[in-house]
Each structure stands twice: as structure tokens, then as C-alpha cells.
Prior knowledge:
Strand order of the largest sheet: 1-6-7-17-12-13-16
Bound molecules: pyridoxal-5'-phosphate
Amino acid sequence: MERTKFILDEKDMPTHWYNVQADLPEPLPPLRHPATKEPTRLPPPLFAEALNEQEFSKERWIEIPDEVQAVYRTWRPTILHRAHRLEKALDTPAKIFYKYEGTSQAGSHKPNTAVAQAYYNKKEGMKRLATETGAGQWGSALSMGCMFFGLELKVYMVKVSYNQKPYRRLLMETWGAKCVPSPSPDTQVGRDILAENPDSPGSLGVAISEALEDALSRDDTKYAIGSVVNHVLLHQTVIGLETKKLMEQADVYPDIIVGCVGGGSNFAGMYLPFIKDKLDGTKPDLRVINVEPNAAPSMTKGPYTWDYGDVAGLAPIVMMNTLGHNFMPPPIHAGGLRYHGMAPIICHLYKLGFVEAQAVPQLATFEAGVKFARTEGIVSAPETNHAIRVTIDEALKCRETGEAKTILLCHSGHGHFDMAAYGEYLSGRLHDYEYPEDKVKEALASLPEVPA
Ligand SMILES: Cc1ncc(COP(=O)(O)O)c(C=O)c1O
């Protein structure tokens, strides 16, 4: 019998998150204050204290609070699958494994950090959180996290996704959150943008600015973010830590790890525990491929430089690969991959040569997603389809060379709320977007000038 699923017992779940900052060969560049532009260790008073501490911590292992572990157990550990059917359909000698994060109640990896952030904010006496969401996955996840710990939540949802995905909004409201389309008339940032362009489709950068303004204007509210920053990547390492144990069970180690990157949290969560082995020289040949859309190609086309995390310049300035903080990406269906920058930890590892990046066009990702659905049965999120595309491409290369490589795919979520996008693809109405070179050039002209 061919083994298809690898499953951990609840008692073997990770009790600590892995903090890669303990093992980086060079420390991350410091943050810069958004107003003074001087190096700072402290971001503005946005996040819960415990999360601020985690942001800069150099401790290798950080304990997962019991209360967070208890909520994790409502859906974790997640399963590691062997994609026998996909392998067969591709006629490849490659061994394809995927860790499926779509079994969380919200349908993606996002609750791994949402639950932790809701817990720390509640513990520190907050009543309410404000956040942004792209495709609605993060907003749903945080709605669920806030529900578990009894917090109110306001979600600013990128307008293009708000209109494309009404059921995501209803999901958030069912868990008790309030969700508005961004740009919204509820903040100064939103009002200014609407005055200039009432039809603005919005972007993650704008929605972040709105949520920041909301949180900064109220004492009972803190901000929560679904990706990019160090503490979010830290919480997501439960994915990679579980996968490492499960791959030991399967008696394999990956040659290639593939995942999609918007702000980088699902994929970094998968690969940071493995990169540890590359950093210490045990696995020098491990390949890690960050996959992004060619419509928002921050890693493959954006310079590694200082930029704001949001459009209004309220968030700290960080060193990252960026397309410019006021870049508005084309409205691709993978709303969660429309961010202008990338997690500083990922960009740092990229600059040091430990990880790779590839950009792929929208149509090819849906072709891959449909292939996956018609072999493995899972209908994946448009974001995840980017990773599936490159997984298939690498498996097809193995067919050419005859190599039986082990490919590990980080499967970030299901696409049950994305059926309209599948409908467009299946009826031949979906199209590709070119790399928006002019718009990027324009956006890069307004990078902040930072003193040396
Ligand atoms: C299913 C799914 N995958 C991936 C992403 C991209 O985010 P990140 O790069 O932080 O994992 C998102 C973001 O919304 C998502 O919903």
C-alpha cells in the first residue's frame, strides 16, 4: 500500500515557534522611524507589547502559550500529503509532498498568527483590533481569532476583493467582525483617496493605512497585521515544524520547497525551520523557490531598498524588495499576492543567496490549479495556484532529467470562496496582466530618502 497521508498526534505538536533571527549570518537591517527616518528599534505604538518583543527577539525558540496551543488544536496538526495522483498524471519520477493548511476553520494558514495576535492583545487588556485584508483570508482568520478570545474587530477589505468575494465578508460578519470596503469614508486616508478617484479598486497598502489610522486614533484598539512582519512569520513556523517531523516519518528530506509569497508569511512559516539546516551547512543544496505573480513582482523586479509598508507612510520604513509603496497592482484574482513589498526576513535571505524567486502569469496558475483539482481533488486558492504552477514545472523538469527529486509544496489554502475566478478561467474569460513597468517606475520615484 502506498502511503498517502502523514499525520502527527496532537501531543507531538510544536510547543515553541522557531525564530530565525537567532541564526541569521548577518542581522536584519534596523527599522526606520516613518517620520524621522532614523534607525529605531521600536515601531509606533501599534502592536501588543508581547508582539513588539517578538519582533526583535533573538531567542531561537519562543514558547507558544497554552491558550494558543489549545485553540491550535481545534484544527492542527495539519496533514502532510503525498501527491501520488498528480505525480502519475505528470508522469514524473519526482516525489511531490504538500502540507495542506486549508483545513483551518477560515480555510488558510492565516489563523496560525491570528489566534496568537488575538490572544496577546486580549491578555494586555485591548477591547478591539483593526486590520486590513486583501482576498479576505486574513480578515476571516482574524475574525475567528477575535471570536475565540472575545475581541471586537474592524476589517478594511481591499475594494476589488470586497466586490469579488461577498461570502468572505459574510464569513467575517458571522464570526462577529465589522468589514468595510477600502478605500472607505471612515478614515482620512480613505476619504482623500476617494476624493481623487471614487472608483479606486484599493490595494493592500491603502487598506493597511486605513487600519493603522483607526488603531492610532483610539486607546482601546491595536493594529494586527496578517503578513510581512517578523512576529507573523514566527507564528507561521508551526507549519514548517510540523512538516519537518512528518517528513522524518516519511523518511525523506526535500530537495526543493515551493510556496507562494504575498507578504511571505505562509511560505516563510514553512521554510524557515528548513533554512536553519542550510544556514548551518547541513543541507547546502536545499532549494527554496518563492513564487509571486508577474503582475506584482516585488522580488524578481523590485529593488532591495528602504520603503514604507503602507501608502500613507504611517508604518515603519523597512529594507525590502519593493515596487514602491504607492504601487497599485492590477486586479488579479490572487488578492493576497497584491502587496508592493515583501517580508524583510525573506528579502534578507534572498539578498544573502539562501532562497530563490520566480514570477508567474495568472492564466498558467489557474491551469495548474485545475490540474491539481482534477488529480488531488483539492480546489486551491488562486494564491496557492502560483505555488502549484512552479511545483508542476519542477516535477516536469524531473521528467526530462529522470531525477527523482523530493518536492515539498506549501499549500496555503482552499479556493471555495474563489469560484467566480475559476468560472472566468473555465469559460475562457480570464486573462493575463503584463508586468506594469511604467506604473512601477512611477511608484519607485517616490521611495523615501533615508539618511545613510
Ligand atoms: C491562501 C493564501 N495564500 C497565500 C497568501 C499570501 O500571503 P502570505 O504571503 O503572507 O502567506 C494569502 C493572503 O491572503 C492567502 O489567502
